[in-house]
Specification:
CATH architecture of the largest domain: Alpha-Beta Complex
Helix content: 25-40%
Distance between the termini: 60 Å
Strand content: 15-25%
Bound molecules: threonylcarbamoyladenylate, magnesium ion
Radius of gyration: 21 Å
Length: 378
């Protein structure tokens, strides 16, 4: 059993450990993480262990990116398909040279976008250096690179002295963790350390941008939007993520072919020209489901609260439609809460696919396994 011999003291003591099997949970302050505890976590990385850590997007499940055996253990701990490559996290541009072999064009793009968005919620896919093991890239000639905007994450990488390969710290197929309690629920007993560094600011995974082609392409929408990319690079595209790859075709981002982010409950999205009409439709659907003995959850915003019976249904009002970043931020927590409440079916309102609304709808769409009901003009 991994053990740290310190005990929790007063309210401000960062060190309240929970342990079972081999997992140690370490509380760290977001702004002022205890260097000794971080040093301990870095030691775990150096000796090939698994450390879950906060980033500004979601929690990551990290290992030394140069240690193939440690990287393999990430896949085991998550139950992740072996063909889904990992993002490599760096703390500074010195580490970029260890993992990226991209030529001048890619370097320029990294430097221009990095200046604007690193550290931050942007992963760039570039040509990989052979030093990056196959276990990380799953045989691709490219590597996903990200500098996270979180002091704990950056310090952990710096103290470990190596880039850290990390997928989101959830069991494969479950919604990504935006809070430490989500990580504990999924991975306690499967990893060496879980750092509790508070809630993640963004709450959904980074934008994945392929910078290897002529036109930079967003393979996974996130908080850095297509408009942001075009502003910096002068061009960019967001291929239709609803289109499933054709049979035999290799998807550009292997992860996007899996139904992701699903709660246990069935999720359905309702779309239509008039949001008032959509709400009336959902309210009727909710009645029908309840009549069939189902426990119903509804995903809306505060504008929609009037339309649903909060006493009969589990209604989540996630912020306001005027601020899609906040709705996005609250989505994964809401999906996990529906499961906690034993909801059987979640009826969700659709959101406009503009700016960060692309990230929101992309994740909702995957949670729903692609089930969108268009009610038309009603
Ligand atoms: O915000 C995030 O990106 C979080 C935090 C922990 O950094 N990480 C994360 O990792 O979401 P993961 O593994 O759950 O998602 C990574 C996505 C997958 O869809 C994967 O297929 C794609 O990035 N990806 C990774 N490397 C790639 C590559 N070389 N080419 C294309 N897609 C890649
Ligand atoms: Mg993931």
């Amino acid at each position: 059993m991994t053990r740290i011999n310190e005990t929790s003291g007063g309210k401000n003591d960062e060190f309240s450990d929970i342990q079972a099997k081999n997992t140690v949970v370490i509380n760290l302050s977001k702004d002022n993480p205890d260097p000794e505890k971080l040093e301990y976590c870095a030691e775990v990385i150096k000796r090939g262990g698994l450390v879950c850590f906060p980033t500004e997007t979601v929690y990551g499940l990290g290992a030394n990116a140069f240690d193939p055996a440690a990287v393999k253990n990430i896949f085991k701990a998550k139950g992740r398909p072996a063909d889904n490559p990992l993002i490599v996290h760096i703390a500074g541009y010195d580490m970029l040279n260890l993992i990226c072999r991209g030529g001048e064009n890619q370097r320029n793009r990294i430097s221009l976008l990095g200046k604007e968005y690193w550290p931050g919620p942007l992963t760039m896919i570039a040509d990989r250096d052979p030093a990056v093991p196959d276990e990380v890239s799953c045989g691709l000639q490219t590597v996903g690179i990200r500098m996270p905007d979180n002091k704990i994450a950056l310090e952990l990488i710096r103290l470990s002295g190596v880039p850290i390969a990390a997928p989101s710290a959830n069991l494969s197929g479950k919604p990504s963790p935006s809070k430490a309690e989500h990580v504990i629920k999924d991975l306690f007993g499967r990893v060496d350390v879980i750092i509790d560094g508070g809630d993640c600011r963004v709450g959904v995974e980074s934008t994945v941008l392929d910078i290897t082609g002529d036109i930079p392409a967003i393979l996974r929408p996130g908080a850095v939007t297509l408009e942001d990319v075009i502003k910096v690079l002068g061009k960019g595209e967001l291929p239709d993520w609803k289109k499933a790859p054709k049979k035999g075709e290799t998807p550009r981002s292997p992860g996007m072919k899996y139904t992701h982010y699903s709660p246990d409950a069935e999720v359905r999205i309702y779309d239509g020209k008039d949001i008032g009409g959509v709400r009336s439709f959902i309210a009727k659907e909710a009645e029908k489901e309840a009549a069939n003995g189902k426990k119903v959850g509804i995903f809306t915003t505060k504008e929609g609260a009037y339309a649903y019976d909060g006493k009969r249904f589990a209604v989540t009002c996630a912020g306001t439609r005027d601020d899609l970043l906040t709705v996005t931020h609250l989505l994964y927590g809401a999906l996990r809460d529906f499961d906690k409440k034993g909801v059987d079916v979640v009826l969700a309102e659709a959101f406009p696919q503009t700016g960060v609304g692309n990230a929101l709808m992309n994740r909702l769409y995957r949670a729903a396994g692609g089930c969108v009901i268009d009610i038309g003009d009603n």
